[in-house]
């Protein structure tokens, strides 16, 4: 039998099948995936089984379900019998996680099936063995050829017989296929259940997170509510304090109003007191007091009589009689004391109070005496009646005396109170009268002084007016200050806005003012104080056909020095406009009315009487227009009355991301002002991306409305800032994003889904400039053009580079009041004085050998464009070469600011190095005047003004060859330039070695060739750095574009 497989009945569903048992092989039957396993173990592992054996691993719930599904209705209705498993079987049960425990079975368990009995499926514990089989007691017999076996059911034998015949295989295979189908279905259900479980867990986590959020919101709401309650309580307290203060104020006002009444009452009181004294009122009071004393004496007599009566009627023991006599004697003593106290009452009111208390005590003792007398009267009834009568009489007299005494005391108290109040009232009245006298004296003195000053002022004003009329009348028209002509221009504009002058008349008068005609000057001087209506009549009498003496130029800009300055743009606008004005052109400027402007630098600031409405976001908004004079130039300030408060931010450029909206609104309002005011300028000049949208607005919207006289100029001061935004943002000012989002118009060259304002200024303007010729060449390359090099190439015929200048009247060491000692190129000794003063001011070494050290300076914004790493290197290099270094500036970048703050702390007490990390206008002037060498190591520099200012003050620049620096500073060792142009030191590369080469040469020339250095200083100070030549270049461009229009 060891080589022949045996068979064993096995219950599957509703069918009992015979399963082959291989004695020396291991066969796995079942589904590991679902946890159902029937294992045949090798005979070697089960020593007690002779021919081999098998065991059943516990069924998982899924297998039990499959068992139920595979059985029929008859099987489900069949009763199932479950026996408890043996202790050894617990090792094979399914764990809590729902997976089969695959721990190996250490003791093989045999299955015994009784006749007619089937194994139950799905009883919660898996298949269980019925009893153990040993090698000597085996309940499963081997089948013979006929299939009969003792202890084996008939159905099993038939199935086994059918299995041998092959007829029962089909049924078994059907059951297996049905079981596999059920297994797949259950697997799908299980996966779906797992998915639903995960979804439920996720929903639970979401709900928990929502609960946490709601809890946080609830806590925040409670905190806000508590804060609101506290705020309300504080508001209530403040309201109560306000009410109290109002009451105090009302009381103070009432007191001040009641002062006359108080005076009248005091006067009446004085009169009453005087009349009282004259009428003998005081004597009457003293008479009453004497009468009270007489009554007291009378009371004493009556008490003596009472004593006699008591002695007569008293029949008690001697001890009591003696006690009564002693008490009466004490009473007499108290009466005497009372008399003394009454005599002293006039001197001390406090003793009167004490006397009252003692009087009350006396009254109580008298009552006690009456009680004793009443007790003694019980023994003598006849005598008692007489005693009661005497006692009642005595009591009446005592009460009368007490009443009189009380009245006297009350009158005395009233008199003392009146006296005290009268004294206090007199003191208060005297104090008030004294204050009134002092106040009246002060008022009279101030009034006299004021009257005298007014008279003197009126006299001086009259003299000044008469003298001014005489002097102004004799001043040549050409020498009249520009403030006068600008004020006249604004006055004429105001008359035009108020319809007192027609547009034609106003333009003619402006032309006369433009020509600075003497007759217009004389009329305005003589009639300046007249009403507008009368002045308009006088002006109309002067109107004659005239010819324009020059161009009418209007700048629209975000900056203008010195009232609204952030960078070089403000200096350029003011300097260029003043140069135009000196050349005889009419120049006006339009700026936003910032809340942070330097209003002290604006003369004659006033609001125009006009209603300016502009469109934005599809709505109409109102604007105020103000006029003023800045550096002799007429300026219009537009103040939007927009709910977003565009220019009320406390700074010129906002930290909020709405500068695009702010300045597109301003540009639309500026053009609307030109249209409504009837101005017909020749040139409208806009600057940088903030006002670049003026060009497309002008052509698309305002030319069709009639504002068509001007041609457009646009200047970009730095191509790094371009005003890029989403296309929808441009529609707010009335432009069409669909029309402008094209490569040849305003579509950004890098981000094709964005719109570029700077590009719009280039495309739609008639002439485009930048601030130096070299920078104009650099921006045609990718590195300098910042994405706009292609657009500039397309429009290169109208693109020019013009070097900026400086206002030599503002930057002049001969007149600069912010430096310690003025000097000029003819005498530069004052420069050394300023150098010593600055050293002392900053605590740097200035004596002995330190006096001869070269002073190197740098005044700049600490931004990457300025080459901050090279500035840092120049500090240490100067120290190595034996020089001194001063840095003035700050950084908007926190990392750079902290880096230089660390350097400043390192050299905090160093005698040769000083870092001032802030912007200080006055200190910058002092540094320009004191320094010997000025370092400007910019990575790129469109133009730069500091090198020009430093040369104007005789400070020699050391610069990198880039942009405007290359156009204004020429190296002293460069033989390509004539000697008269050499004014500084230039290096090429943006690295420390190249900077050291330029700086070292400057320091060496300073120390080794002092006389040559003095000549270099004078040559630099004498160079023409003004706006004159640059302004002529701009005017040439204006004339070119205007001439094309005429043709």
TrEMBL record:
**What is the recorded name of this protein?**
starch synthase
Keywords assigned: Coiled coil, Glycosyltransferase, Starch biosynthesis, Transferase, Transit peptide
Q: Where is this chain compositionally biased, Polar residues type?
A: 129-138
Q: Which residues form the Glycosyl transferase family domain?
A: 846-1005
CDD domains, from UniProt? GT5_Glycogen_synthase_DULL1-like
Give residue spans, biased composition: Basic and acidic residues.
81-103
> Membrane-spanning residues where?
none
| Matches recorded under Pfam families | Glyco_transf_5, Glycos_transf_1
Q: Which SUPFAM superfamilies match?
A: UDP-Glycosyltransferase/glycogen phosphorylase
| Molecular function in Gene Ontology | alpha-1,4-glucan glucosyltransferase (ADP-glucose donor) activity; alpha-1,4-glucan glucosyltransferase (UDP-glucose donor) activity
Note whether Coiled coil occurs among the keywords.
Answer: yes
